[in-house]
């Protein structure tokens, strides 16, 4: 869970930074999209580096989902009888790890079909013109809703997940508690705000 | 005080249980929670009914025998054991729900009594030292750094009550096991078994059917002895270190 989660988290940080290039206009954003395909050249062939990243990410998503499934099964089996008197319990982020994870998995599928393959894209999807594709997606109400809900889910998942992964890996301690909680909250906030700023910019006409 | 109690009643492990409602009167605010249950049981015995079975021993917060989930909280609303909880924490006319520890690894024996021998087997797997200790040693013979001594004492406070498991939505025993592992692993007396202790105790914990930890923190909130949540991370560190040493 921890290693695959942190791999994906590293990717998300790079991804949000890349997305923010949309604010520098279509040329720069499209050129960035092109660079992703020639990354590692001339040592690597066209798109090799990109495919390497995709393969590692896919492996991380699969490993993460499989361990989440195994962990959840084990945990539900270990507590077969619920208390009659229920209490709220842990923080919202902690309690929503399972459902949040499922929402994220569904989002990832939609997101790839929308902006990578163009299968469910609302406009005329054109490869090599990601700027226009992004504007098209966020010109539909459902594109905005799906995306913003998923990004709130990412924030919550990372808020508990990052701190939790540190404990799993034995990095947590009483002394580092504030630092790790702060880093988890900071990361969660930066990711959600960064990702959400793009649809908001399209909705308000800042990016068009 | 006059109270309404809703208590889990279950004849034995094989028969299904249910919550039963009882009224108790004449409860003083100075009674402990267990004395309040004694009052109920005296009433039940006089009426010819089966008294409520619950675990207790020292009644002074040191043995770890008492349990009970009170209004959804393991050991009730205060950070102490059920035997040290007093009725002044409640108000006249309150309805109180009383349930046993709930975990697959802690099956109900009768009413509010659960079988916690899974904890004993986790201890047997490595919660001991093999050095012959004899009488109290000369204190300067084996120096222990102050920070290590404090950490060992902090973790030695665990009384093995199982509130951590009861409070955990995953029925995980990580806090208990980490208290035992950290207690001995920081001390020179515990270092000969440092690697096998953590590996064997965690393996036994898993074999007993306790759930996996998702760091919800419920355990540390419930623990009457204040074993802190970062103890789990410290045990994970020990476990990873032991795996590297044993394998490499
Ligand atoms: C396939 C979709 C996903 C599912 C089904 C899923 C589900 C879960 C579950 C059930 C847990 C364990 C619950 C807990 O620790 O409380 C978890 C933990 C975690 N998740 Fe996800 N998640 C998904 C996507 C992601 C993504 C995209 C990231 C990257 C930001 C991520 C990062 C993490 C981290 C870092 C942890 C903590 C690991 C640990 O405690 O050791 N997850 N996830
Ligand atoms: S860690 Fe705390 S709650 Fe768990 S068994 Fe020990 S004393 Fe009880
Ligand atoms: S009866 Fe001994 S700790 Fe409560």
How many strands, which pairing sense, and closed or not: the largest β-sheet of chain B?
5 strands, mixed
Distance between the termini of chain B: 64 Å
Given this structure, which CATH class of chain A is correct? Mainly Alpha
- What separation lies between the terminal Cα atoms of chain A? 39 Å
Low-confidence stretches of chain B: none
CATH class of the largest domain in chain B: Mainly Alpha
CATH topology of the largest domain in chain B: Fumarate Reductase Iron-sulfur Protein, Chain B, domain 2
- Reported by name, the CATH topology of chain A is 3 helical TM bundles of succinate and fumarate reductases
How many separate domains make up the residues of chain B? 2
Helix content of chain B: 25-40%
Indicate the overall shape of chain A.
Answer: globular
By secondary-structure content and strand pairing, the structural class of chain B works out as alpha+beta
Give the helix proportion of chain A (percent range).
Answer: over 70%
Strand content of chain A: under 5%
H/E element order of chain A: HHHHHHHH
Strand order of the largest sheet of chain B: 2-1-5-3-4
Strands of chain A, total number: 0
Bound molecules: protoporphyrin IX containing FE, iron/sulfur cluster, FE2/S2 (inorganic) cluster
Low-confidence stretches of chain A: none
Residues in β-strands, percent of chain B: 5-15%
* Count of separate structural domains of chain A: 1
In short:
The complex is a heterodimer of chains A (208) and B (248). Chain A has 208 residues and is mostly helical.
